[in-house]
Amino acid sequence: MQEENIDRNTAADKAENTRAPREDAVVFDGVVFSYAEQASPALNGISLAVKKGEFLAVIGHNGSGKSTMARLINGLLLPDKGTVTVFGLNTAEGKNPAEIRKRAGIVFQNPDNQMVASVIEDDVAFGPENLGVEREEIGRRIESALRAVGMEAYRYGTPSRLSGGQKQRIAIAGVLAVKPDILILDESTAMLDPRGRREVMQVVSRLHREEGLTVILITHFMEEALLADRTIVLNRGEIVMQGTPADIFLHSERLEAYNLSLPRIGRICKSLQKAGIPVADCLTPEELAEEIAEAAAARGVKGECGGHVPAAPASLAGGEWDIDIKNLAYTYSAKSPFASVALKGIDLHIGEGEFFGIIGHTGSGKSTLVQHLNALIKLPSAQKRYRPARPKKGRPAPVLPELKVGPFDLADKKCDFFRLRESVGMVFQYPEYQLFAETVFADVAFGLKNFRKGISAEETEAAVRDAITMVGLDYAEVKDKSPFDLSGGQKRRVAIAGVIVTRPHILVLDEPAAGLDPLGKQEIMELLHKIHREWCSTVIVVSHDMDEIADNCTTAAVISEGAVADCAPPRVLFSRTEELLSLGLDIPLTAKACARLKELGIEIDTDFTCEDFARKVTALFNGGEHA
Amino acid sequence: MLNDVTFGQYYPASSFVHSMDPRTKLLALIAFIVAIFMAETFYGMLLCAVVLTAAVLAARVPFGSVLRSVKGILIILILTSAINLFFHGGEHLLTPESWAVKIYREAVVFTVFLMLRLSLLVMASALLTLTTTPVRLTDGIESLLTPLKWVRFPVHELALIMSIALRFIPTLIEETNRIISAQKARGADFESGNLFKRVKAVVPILVPLLISAFRRAEELGDAMDARCYSGSKNRTKYKKLTFGLRDLAGALVVAALVAGVVLFNVYAADIWPQIYEYIVIK
């Protein structure tokens, strides 16, 4: 981010505006809105005023009506009852929407679906072009908008090579080029990895701070809402809580009632307080560490944690369904001018029975890696046309990749790839987008009928019923429904049922919790643990959420630039803080708190789950008291 | 897996031809096609081939990739050649009188001509797509079609549709690949079985793809509305194509080519009268 390059003129302009008595930017007055196909209103009597220059966060679970609010503000939707006014203009009147859209820009959720052009500067130019702005001025606006989001180096590039976070920054630039006063972010970070989310939030809070933009941030990430001046909580179309982020998060019980969860640090605070440790409510890991250190000093607790170091989990090597990967390399579009190396020599062992995590940035090669596991990408030596190269004199024989999954040798052309796929279930990112059948039953049965040709109707029904029940849905209720009539979370469960219905030994999931709200994420992870316990001996989860990995996995591998940077149980992995940070990866919040505590002279040996962290700190205090 | 924006056959390089204005290249291609169809002598055809070769050299694209484009029309080429060879009439019979199949000298000359014409045409078009990104090509087409606005032809809308299509082709290809992989992982088989079975096997790909395309279209529509799109009225255009010196040079070369072809048509008989009847079509 190039903070020094701010457009001085506009910054001064905006600063002057904020000094004037603050006018209302957006006013909702008794707004009711229903979608035609739904019985209950999406918004039910919303009244709200957003001041110019304010940073408002709107949080709520999926389906609470948050996104409807964004669309009402700029006239994409019109209220059934009540009025929405933006700078005094009623959205429902005549040509007002056109004027309002100049002043209130929206950045949507999916970065791919809001770009019109294949060249970045053309995309940013789209808004000003629509307004009939002069050519030279458009050029200047492109420059300053891209500079404001730190993407000026990509001006002539194409969006398809960018990461999600970069694409969203381009989308923000596209909105800024219209020169709006209000920036609305409609779950704009929901599909991003933590790094992308951080990038976008940095840009947004800087725009608010330095350019005086009014920001309305719609999100289900509590951590993001912390940046706002004011937070409102929506539940079933009504505003149920309002106040500064700190106010809101201190009412944890109420938040949970609205299907929202506290930020992790808040949760740790609560459980420490319950254990009688005098820490004040706080929201960042650093604050928490300082609180703990202070409390420790007050009680005279010192030194290392009292808990004993648990023995490392018994080695899981030598299982029947172990996965062995050696020298795995892969290049997309090899031998073409667009060749891009995805993997360069992966060595990895995944033992039977593990809940294995694969961590890495978007584009680190982790998805390519897992697609090898069930031969969706075949090794070169397993391809039909493969002929072993004749050894050349004076040159060492080329190292061929090796890959064994249980009894299957994937480097062998004669390997039964069909049976392999039955044993290694693969759930892709956003698996609900792959549903196709008319009923839930037919969709779940699809894989079963493919793998077991001629399976009897009774057997099919039994297996499908078990799978649907396993993922926590009511078989009788959903089996004849169209999968497209289900809610987002239910769709994802049906998609998972469609993979586990064949009872694979190994289940691989690519970002299983992506795009869900915090509660949905938690439920999916619980479901995976249940599947791991009862059905699949090995579960492999690809994720970029460090907290998710810390909380769930027995072992995790870090993939960086196509190679394994590290592979260890989370308690070991996340204690190597500097190493992870130097790879540009995040560390769990608990690890951040531990690092700060270490600086303050307190060492805590934990496996970095929230529960264990709280338990160890409690033990530290109790041990200190007894001593 | 195809997931790059430069799908199609664009060959990235920086060269004289790559940096020419797309309009010049489009017009030059049209002029070139006119030239190869005007040419009535092998001299003219040779001149066309020489100019194309020079253009390929100036474009710094591998000759192989230009030649490969002919492979695409190989069947058409063989079929039309065969038909012309056997059914084109003439005066000088080459096969013995008694044969049922009659091949005339004129037919042979004409067939060779036809093959050269078609091959040069395809190779020249390939050179255009190899050196111009689809985006630049769309810009060029839009600019060239602008006069049609006078007859109320929706040039702007057409250009926007093309540019959005180009923008979403890589996204949809990527999505298709992902859906295919996901259904393969669930045991779907797209490669064996009879036609009916194969068509049926496509349903699990097509349904999710269509649903997703509609969802994307809806979201894109909202995003365009939110960014103040309201049709072509009062709209300005940021990107402006400008002709440069290279374009002038290119235009001169093509003009010289057409002139050369015409001159050869007129004066070929005087160059080497003995072989004239073997190198001309009438």
Summarize the structure.
The complex is a heterodimer of chains A (627) and B (282). Chain A has 627 residues and is α/β, with parallel strands linked by helices.
What would you note in describing this structure?
The complex is a heterodimer of chains A (627) and B (282). Chain A is of the alpha/beta class and 627 residues long. In chain A, strands 6-7-8-3-9-10 form a 6-stranded mixed beta sheet, with helices on both faces. In chain A, strands 16-17-18-13-19-20 form a 6-stranded mixed beta sheet, sandwiched between helices. In chain A, a hairpin with a 2-residue loop joins strand 4 (81-86) and strand 5. In chain A, helix 11 (264-274) packs parallel to helix 24 (610-626) and helix 16 crosses helix 18 (488-500). The longest helix of chain A has 18 residues, at 194-211. Chain A is globular. The two termini of chain A are 50 Å apart. By secondary structure, chain B is mainly α. Chain B folds into 2 domains: 1-132 and 247-282, no CATH class; 154-242, no CATH class. Chain B contains 9 helices and no strands. Chain B has helices at 22-38, 42-59, 63-71, 74-87, 105-131, 134-145, 155-185, 195-226, 245-271. The relative contact order of chain B is 0.17. The model of chain B is unreliable at 1-7 (pLDDT under 50). Chains A and B meet through helix 3, helix 4, helix 5, helix 14 and helix 15 of A and helix 7 and helix 8 of B.
Q: Which key terms come to mind for this protein?
A:
heterodimer, A: 627 residues, alpha/beta, six-stranded mixed β-sheet, 24 helices, 20 strands, globular, B: 282 residues, mainly alpha, 2 domains, 9 helices, disordered N terminus
The total strand number of chain B stands at 0
Our count of helices of chain B gives: 9
Low-confidence runs of at least 5 consecutive residues of chain A: 1-20, 305-312
- SS-derived structural category of chain B: mainly alpha
Oligomer status: heterodimer
| Count of extended strands of chain A | 20
Helix content of chain B: 55-70%
Tell me the radius of gyration of chain B: 25 Å
The proportion of residues in beta strands of chain A is 15-25%
Shape designation of chain B: globular
End-to-end separation of chain B: 50 Å
SSE succession of chain B: HHHHHHHHH
Which structural class should the secondary elements of chain A be placed in? alpha/beta
Mean pLDDT of chain B: 88
Distance between the termini of chain A: 50 Å
- Main sheet overview of chain A: 6 strands, mixed
The whole-number mean of residue pLDDT values of chain A reads: 84
The largest interface is: A-B, 69 and 56 residues
User: Could you say which overall geometry of chain A the principal axes of the C-alpha atoms support?
Assistant: globular
